[in-house]
Amino acid sequence: MAYLAPIHPPSSIRHALKMNLLDPEEECLVLAKTNRIEIWILGEERLVMLTSKAIYGRVSMLEKIRPVGATTDHLFIGTAQFQYCTVVWNPDTLQLDTVQSFYDVSEQHMQNSQSRDGCLVDPTGKVVVMELFQGILNIFKVIKPRKGTTDYFTTPEQVRITELRVKSCCFLHTEDKRPKLAILYDAGKQHTDIRLVTYRVVDEKGQISMFTPKDHENKLKDLDVGASMLIPVAKGEFEQKRYIVRNAIDARAHMGGLVVVGETSMLYLDDESKAEIHYTLEEPNIWVAWERYDDTQYLLADRYARLYLLTINVEGAEVISLDVRLIGKTTKAAVMRHMGNGVVFIGSHEGDTQVVRLNLALKKPTIEILQVMDNIAPILDFTVMDLGGRDNNTHFSEYSSGEARIVTGSGGWSEGSLRSVRSGVGLEDLGILADIDDIQGLFALSTDGINNDVLVVSLSIETRIFTFDGDEGIAEVDDFRGFDLTAHTLLAKRLANGYMLQVTTSKAILSPTQGKGKRSIWKPDPKYSPIVITSASANDDCLLISENGTLLAVLDLHCDLGNVASEKRSDQVACMFVPPQLPSIAIPNIAVVGYWKSGSIEILNLKDLSVLYREDLRRTDDTWIPRNIAFTQILHSSQAGPALFVAMEDGVVLAYNVDPQTLSLSGRKSIVLGTQQAKLEVLPRENGLYNVFAMCERPSLIYGSDGRVVYSAVTAEDAVHVCWFNSAVYPGSIVVATSDGQLKISQIDSERRTHVRTLPVGETVRRIAYSARERAFGIGTMGLKVLGNLETVQSTFRLVEEVLFGEIGEPFLLDASRGELIECVMRSELKTSYRDEPVERFIVGTSFLLGDDPADQKCKGRIIVFGVDKEKNPYEIMSHELKGACRCLSMMDGKIVAALVKTVVMYRYEETTETEAHFSKLATYRTSTNPISMDVHDNIIAVGDLMKSLSLVEYKPGVNGLPDELEEVARHMQALWSTAVVHIEGDTYLESDHHGNLVVLQRNRQGVTLEERMQLEATSMMNIGEVVNRIVHLNIAPSPTAIITPRAFMATTEGSIYLFSTIGTTFRELLMTLQKKLSSIVRTLGCDTSVDTPLEKFNAYRAFHIPQEDDDPDGPFRFVDGELIEHFLYLDEDLQEEVCRGLGPSVEDVRNMVEELKTLH
Questions:
Q1: What average pLDDT does the segment 1023-1050 reach?
Q2: Pairwise CA distance, residues 301 & 341, whole Å
Q3: Strands 258-261 and 229-232
């Protein structure tokens, strides 16, 4: 059984919408990323994400609807699964509520439409048109909901049109209430007859039009053959009435028409007067997106990442001419939205998304980039580096995706790049303060009460003080506010009343900040000498001290350290924590104390040290001892109360939910962060919330996100002490003490992020191979250049250094005269006849066309072997001509396996010198159509065929003088359009196809008949809604007690990266049952109980699916959706108990299991 979890969300943006979703007066931006809807608001020159919600389906359209009586816009969402819904923002719950949901139950065996405008709403907001299939329009009206219902859509009516190959559609601004639809379509067999027609959507009686040729309002022929977009033009401020003119020669064009955007020309059409205005471009161009800037100015984006301004020149309401001028260079746009005041959002599929500011008032317009959002889509190839180890002492594999560096080939053409992707909480070093050994603690103070400008460094036998000025000046001082610098400091803190507090092992000192006020010193009663202060913690009112580990004393910080209460404990105090005054806590001035002997914690009232709540931490281990405590507000008080974290001595961190009124504990979770105790440090963040930094073998940041507590790895493996340090020069920073004695100031992320390091290549990075010996990546690229009006493609092989992430050496250019392209790249250690040890080589497979006549061209290819010289330049050792394109390469026991068109060939490689080598063909295998992917394990070659799924081919060396053979030993009998294949374990293989399906195939060696042994059986199947481009195997040693074992990474065209794992035998039934229960409860956008249940939605989305086949949506087959499983942590405790009823394990056990699964990615 299989388990799939996302480790990087989709980053490609194809749909965006500006609308009044949240507020009637304030607009927001809604983005669609595959199966997620994100809401962003415009802050100070940058967009900030407000929320992100999942939907069961791949979003294919977004539109805004304003129903009758509504004060805000409703969001209309359509998916590729032909499911549609409208959602509205609920200001009370701060969530999106589903208003109406429906399916398209029409015939779905038709050819999909190629129109760029899948859904349109007329300017009055009363009619909605969807074009899903060629020659079919679905039309429905927006009406006032009937009493007792919220549905405002009529039943969709399906209308056939004669225009089949529609390129674009738009609604026009008409003079009456009858919406008019313009359709740009291709009427010719050779795609050279581009026409435009307009229809009235409804007739005089308000009925849907028949859309027959006699219903044409207007018809234009012989348009630009490259015309691909229609831009509707508003009437603007001029309300001049337009009339249908019989004499088109004298007609004048007015605002309210449309612009036909072509590759060589533009056409403005006033559909009422039939007047036309033509404009010829200075040079041909391929347009990909447009956006309205104002009534007379429109932004145009082209294929080459350039931004243009289309201006409609007018005199009053009359259109005089058109003009197009270049603004500048941006990312390649897939969608654009003008946010106002010249700020434009440019969403991209092939490059980074940008927020820019345009200044069009200048004679030469300028573009200012305000914000860049990383986009790693589409991922064409990737490799995995820096895999962390694992610890067999824990009951699950200790692998974490945060320990893996994934290097991807992303983007396309001019936006192509190499990306280093690592997920986790980033720690960026800003500077080294000093080298100090034996640091025992760090404390930040503030002399002005605003910024931290004093750092207290506590050592074993002394304390050192560093002061900071406003100009990055740092100085160590010998005296500070009467502090004792000859002793180890347990606590240093600035109080709200302006006093400074220091607690050493022998006394407490309270000093005024500005020299005004009384300095107070408190020492333990000498009659109990010798007494050592073992621990201390304080808020702005009270100081709690432990004397010799058995006596607790509370001191008043407002009354010269006067004694408030003291009490001797029978148990040894192991740790303590006094939280700040949290607004959500009903009882002020509390403390949490942990004890050695009993392994318990107590919540105390500092007024009299009375016990408010006691919790025994031990369950099965009688030696568990609490060693560190943090009590703070992780989530907003409207979502949850405070959280309590207890670090145990064996590396486990216990987490509890705290009731703000009674201070009782619930929702216990245990997370393994290492093998030794973690030190917990509370770090403030915005809105009165806090994070917790856990320092251990695997440093982690505990923070709140999307209503739940998240544990994420931090890139600070050597940190032993940290403290918050919000200085004027380094705002929002922390000071870190490392295990090797470095004291440095760093910037830390407030939550987990995907850290992307980019090397712009300017060409499509098609293939990647990593060489550990050369410490470099070998990449195959394709560059697009325009010379005159002709596009040319140049393919190159080049090297990129792994640490500095920059190109090294000179690129090797392939033969551009015959259009040679790199198809695959591989690195390998090959044996030679002149050296004892193997040599490192890059092997490249190519394709090219022979012949000048396209009808007679033949596809050929080469295999090129590259070496790397001392200057890190790749050089060609040998080139082997092929009869077909070389699609894939792999190695088998020193032999090269090449997948050509229709053939798999095995070669022996013989290298005689550093510049000479040759191939010898050993064996061949004839494939069904075209091998698209290949993986080799032992002597078995897994071949993913373009149309005929997976086949296994066994290599058999020749005996007794017979030649070697490649023999097919098993095949998947179902026809799948394969995209990637990889060996998982044993006789198990993972395959992805063009429709977003994942299939785990098992070879049946023990079958009774030959037919059974020759068939690959599907043991797990699921649809992820994205096309997988590449699967890379992970070599993680399985643990018999692990919940799941990571087996492979997968990358998709939408920029997603998934972790594929196999489920441990003892957890299979548990996870499958948990998935079924959660899928019946978890509701996503579009779930409307009047239409279907959440379970039916989930099953329909995740079920194995092939278009044009009648699927039975029974859900994923023996496949567990990790994203759904993790929703268990989002549920409130009552729902968690309902899910776990009859499941077997307790709620706490299930929470712990899901948290451990979450740490894997």
A1: 91
A2: 19
A3: antiparallel
